[in-house]
Amino acid sequence: MKNIKCLLTGIFAVSMTFSLSAQVRTEQTLEKGWKFTRQDKTEFSSPDYNDVKWQSVTIPHDWAIYGPFSINNDKQEVAITQDGQKDAMEHAGRTGGLPFVGTGWYRLTFDVPNYTSGDKVELLFDGAMSHAKVYVNGSEAGYWPYGYNSFVIDATAFIKGSKGNKLAVRLENEPESSRWYPGAGLYRNVHLIVTEDSHVPVWGTQLITDKVDENIARVNLKTIWNAAKGSNLDDFTIKTEIKDAQGKVVASSSDKLSRFDQSLFEQTFAVAKPNLWSPESPYLYTANSTIYQGEKVKDTYTTRFGIRTIEIIPNKGFFLNGKMVKFKGVCNHHDLGPLGAAVNKAAIRRQIKIMKDMGVNAIRTSHNMPAPEFVEACDEMGMMVMAESFDEWKSAKCENGYHKVFDEWAEKDIVNLVHHYRNNPSIVMWCIGNEVPDQRNQANGPKLARMLQDICHREDPTRPVTQGMDAPDAVVNNNIAATMDVAGFNYRPFKYAENYKKLPQQIIMGSETASTVSSRGVYKFPVKRESMKKYDDNQSSSYDVEHCGWSNLPEDDWIWHEDNPWAIGEFVWTGFDYLGEPTPYYTDWPSHSSLFGIVDLAGLPKDRFYLYRSHWNKESETLHILPHWTWPGREGEVTPVFVYTNYPSAELFINGKSQGKRTKDLSVTYENSMDSTSTANLKRQQRYRLMWMDTKYEPGTVKVVAYNEKGEAVAEKEIRTASKPDHIELVADRTVIDADGKDLSFITVKVVDKDGNLCPDAQNLIKFDVKGKGTYRAGANGNSISLELFHMPQMKVFNGMMTAIVQSSEEVGNITLKATAKGLKPALITITTQK
Ligand code: GAL
Fold first, then answer.
1. How far does the chain reach from its first CA to its final CA, in angstroms?
2. Long-range contacts of the stretch 203-207 (C-beta < 8 A, 24+)
3. How far apart are CA 71 and CA 134, in angstroms?
4. Which helix (H) or strand (E) holds 448?
5. Which residues contact 536 (CB under 8 A, 6 or more apart)?
6. Which of 739, 636, 614, 735 is nearest to 685 (CA)?
7. CB-CB contact of 536 with 286 (8 Å)
8. Pocket of ligand 1 contains residue 729 by CB under 6 Å
9. Using CB atoms within 10 A of its CB, is residue 515 exposed (0-12), middle (13-18) or buried (19+)?
10. How much distance in Å is there from the Cα of 396 to the middle of ligand 1?
11. Ligand 1 contacts CB of residue 548 (under 6 A)
C-alpha cells in the first residue's frame, strides 16, 4: 500500500497519512494542532471547554524533557534492595531529575475523513505516559494505565460527524512509579483509523512462516474479520497477494469465508526461493489483502513480514535460519537522550546504526514495550529484538509501580504487545519480566511465570519466552528458571556453569550483563579494577575497569559465551546512556543520568564502544588507543595505554620509542581466571585488550602498529598531544534530510587545536544559531551532572565534545547551523532538506 502525504490547512489542521484506497480505510496520525496544560480540572474533558490559552504542541511530545531539572522532582527516599541497599536514602536523580510527575491534559479538535454513519472509528495510541483517560466529544471512551503499551480506543459510539470532533486525554504520573526516566505525556503517536462497519481490526492479522528452506517457504495468514451485525458470512471473500521487496507478486490466493470459520480467514501460500530475513540481509515481504462482500471492497489490509526461522536447540544454542547465532546484544531504555521519550524516527535509526557498527545483532527493549517506529526500523535495518513487558509483577520495586495494576492488566498488556508485533521478523523473543521480586517467591513466582509465558505462547506459538532473573539460586531451586523457554540470567556469569547443569533447557542466556560504568573522556589514576568506586567529580573512568557491586567488565561475560555452546549470548547493560539511574552516584545530585552506556547520552561513543566493536564486529577493522595524550602536569608519571583492536597483537611507540609488543593471551580461560588475584590483575582482559600498564606520559605522539596472525604489520594509528583550543569543528551524521518537519541531523561538535586534534579538557560554552529551513531541536554533552537544558541553543562541551541536533521544517531548502564560543574560531555547517 502506497502512502501519500496530504496537508490540511486551517486552524484545526492535522498532519495526515492517507492510504490510496481511502474509500474503505483511512489511517492518519494526529500530530498537529494539539493544546496542552499541566493543570487538572474535570471540565477539561468537556467539548465546550475553551483551551485557547493552553500551550500549542505537536505530538509526539514529552512534557518533562524541557525541565527544569530539580533535586525535588521525584526525590525518592528509598532503599534500592536489588542493589543491596539496606536503609532508605535520598535518591534525587534516580528518574532523571525532570518534572514528569503530576498531571497533564491534551486536547485536539479533529475531523474524521470520509466519515459516514455506521463507520468504525478507532484511536490507536502507540503509548501514553501514563494512566491515560481518553474522552471523545465529552464522553470517557477508554482508560489504559501502562504508559509503555499501545492500546486501541473504540470511538465509534462518540463520533458526532466528520467535522469538529473533540478529543481530550488526561495523563497522570505518580511519584515513585519508576526506576528510570519514563518521559511524560503523549510521547508516541496517536492514530485515527476509520473503516467500514465490516473490517479487519487493529493488529488483525497473524502471519506465520513455519516451514522454510532455501527452495520454498510456507506462509500462513490468518485475518480476523469483524463482520457487521446481521451480515451473511458466506458473502465475504479475501484476496491476498504476497509481494516481494520490489513489489512483484510472488504468491496469491482468493478464499471465501464461511459461517464455520469463526470470523477468521485462513490462507496458505508457497513462496518459491524465499529471501530470508536476517540482521545481515533484512529482506521484507508484504501480504496485501482486500476483503470483498460480493463484488464490493469492504476493507484493505497490509501485513509486512519477513521469512525466517528461529530455534533453540539444547546444548547447541540459538539458530536463525538454521545457523547458530550468538546474541551480541544490548539493553536500551526507550529515551532518546536530549529528546527525552518523544519518539523520533531519525533518532531511533541513528541509535540502531551506531549499534550495528559496533557489531550488535540484537536489542532488548528494557524493561517495556517498544515504539512501533523502533520495531519497524529493526525490521528494515536488520536488528533482532527481545521485546520486554514488565519491570514488576505482583510485588513492588517502586511504591507506585506496575504491581498496583498487575492483576487486572497484565494479560491485556501482554496480549497487546504480542498482537502488535507478532508479524515483525525482528522480534525473536518475548521477555515477560525483569528482576521481578516475585522470582524469589516460592508460592507465587513459578505460577506467575508460567501464566505469563502461556499467554505469550497462546497468542504467538512461534517465539520463545524468557525473563531476566537476578536471583540465580532462588530461580533454580523454585523452578522458575526451568519453566522458561529460555533461562535469562542477569549478571553473575560465574553461576552459569553450575546452573546450566541443573536446567532442562541446557542453554543459558545473559539477559543482562556487564553494567560497566564509564564517562566519556574521563580517565582515573592509578588504573585499577574497582567496584562502586566514586570520585569527587561524580564520573567513572574510561579505562573500562569500573563496575557495580553486582556486575563486572565486558570480558567477564564474553569468555563464557565464546567458550560454551550452551551460553547463547548476552544483552549488555546498556548500549546508550539514559536519563536516570546515575549509579554509583545514587545520592549525589546533580548526577541524574547513567554511566552504564557504551555510548553516552549525546550518542558519542565512549572507549568501550571500540572494545565491543573489536570483539563483535568481524567485518571492519578496529584499532583504538586510549587514553587521550594531553596530560599537562603528568609528565613522567605512569599513564597506562590500552589498545582495543580486532588484531591479535600490536606494538606501541611513544615519540618513536617502542614500549613493547603485546599479544592477546588466548591461554586465559574462565576456569584459570576466576580467583581474586586474576580478577585484580585484569587477567581476563588480557585475552581481549592490549594493555601497557607502565607507560609514562611525555607530550608528543602515541603510535600503535597492529599485526595479523601471520605477524605482518597491517595497520597503524597515531594520536597526538593537543595544543591550545583553536576552533570548533562540526560534522553531521546526515547532511541531507527530509523536509517533513520531523527529520533530524545530529551534528558532532568538537573543540580542536589548530591542527584538528581534539582538546580533551575543553569545556567551552558553545552558542548555536540556526537559520533557514529548520530549527535547533536539542543538544547533549554526555555529562551526567550537567543541568543545562537540552533544548536551549547553547551548551558546554564535555571533554571537548557534544552533539547538536537540528530539525527540518516542511519547506525544502538549506539549514545552516553556526557555532560560536569565546576565544574560538566559529564554525558553520549546512544541511539540505528535500521532499
Ligand atoms: C539491573 C536492572 C537494570 C539496571 C541495572 C543497573 O539490576 O535490571 O534495570 O538497574 O541493574 O546495573
1. 20
2. 203/416, 203/419, 203/420, 204/301, 205/287, 205/289, 205/301, 205/303, 205/423, 206/422, 206/423, 206/460, 207/287, 207/303, 207/305, 207/423
3. 32
4. helix 445-459
5. none
6. 614
7. no
8. no
9. buried
10. 15
11. yes
Question: What is the crossing angle of helices 607-616 and 554-563, to 10°?
Answer: 10
Distance of CA 654 to the CA centre of its chain: 40
Whole-number percent of the chain with pLDDT over 70: 97
CA of 124 to the centre of ligand 1 (A): 31
Residue 658 to residue 830: CA distance in whole angstroms: 43
* pLDDT, tens digit (0-9, with 9 covering 90-100), for 97-121: 999 999 999 999 999 988 999 999 9
Decide: 173 and 184 in contact? Cβ < 8 Å: yes
What pLDDT shows up at residue 13? 32
CA 84 vs CA 90, 439, 549: distances in Å: 15, 16, 8
Find the 547 Cα to ligand 1 centroid distance in Å: 12
Identity of residue 36: F
Q: Which residues pair with 803 in a beta bridge?
A: 748, 780
User: Can you read off the three cell numbers belonging to residue 187?
Assistant: 510521547
pLDDT at 441: 87
CA 530 to centroid of chain Cα atoms: 29
Please state, in angstroms and rounded to a whole number, the distance separating the CA atoms of residues 161 and 735: 44
Is there an atom of ligand 1 within 6 Å of 622 CB?
Answer: no
> What number does the ligand 1 atom closest to the CA of 367 have?
9
577 lines ligand 1 (CB under 6 A): no
Which secondary-structure segment (H or E) carries 465?
strand 465-469
Q: Which of helix, strand or coil describes residue 235?
A: helix
Q: Give the pTM.
A: 0.96
> Hey, is 706 helix, strand or coil?
strand
Residues 167, 155: Cα–Cα separation, whole Å: 10
pLDDT at 402 over 80: yes
Residue with cell 480506543: 153
Return phi, psi of residue 401, to 5°. Answer: -80, -170
Looking at the DSSP assignment, which residues form a beta bridge with residue 329?
362, 571
Handedness of CA 389, 395, 396, 401 (dihedral sign): positive
Exposure pattern of 301-336 as b/e (b: 16+ CB <10 Å)?
A: bebbbbbbbbebeeeebbebbeeebbbbbbbbbbbb
Give the pLDDT confidence of 258-314 residue by residue, as tens digits.
888 889 999 999 999 999 999 999 999 999 999 999 999 999 999 999 999 999 999
How many CB atoms neighbour CB 270 within 10 A? 15
Query: What would the grid cell of residue 259 be?
Result: 459461517
- Cβ atoms within 10 Å of 121's Cβ, excluding its own: 19
CA of 558 to the centre of ligand 1 (A): 19
For residues 383 and 361, what is the distance between their CA atoms, to the nearest angstrom? 5
Q: Are 438 and 393 in contact (CB under 8 A)?
A: yes
Residues recognised as catalytic: 435, 512
Q: Is the CB of 515 under 6 A from ligand 1?
A: yes
User: What is the average pLDDT value for the chain, to the nearest integer?
Assistant: 96
Helix (H) or strand (E) holding 219: strand 216-224
Q: What is the DSSP letter of 369?
A: P
CB-count burial class (<10 Å; 0-12, 13-18, 19+) for 289: buried
Q: Are 804 and 828 in contact (CB under 8 A)?
A: no
Residue 472's φ and ψ, nearest 5 degrees, are: -55, -40
- Using the predicted structure, report yes or no on whether residue 516 has a pLDDT greater than 80: yes
Residues in Cβ contact with 478 at an 8 Å cutoff, skipping those fewer than 6 apart: 439, 440, 442, 445, 446
pLDDT above 80: residue 4:
no
| Grid-cell match 566559529, residue found | 826
Rounded to whole angstroms, the Cα distance separating 698 from 702 reads: 10
575 alpha carbon, distance to own chain's centre: 9
- pLDDT, position 18: 35
CA torsion angle 246 250 251 254 (round to 10): 50
Q: What is the predicted pLDDT for the residue at 261?
A: 85
- Give residue 82's pLDDT: 86
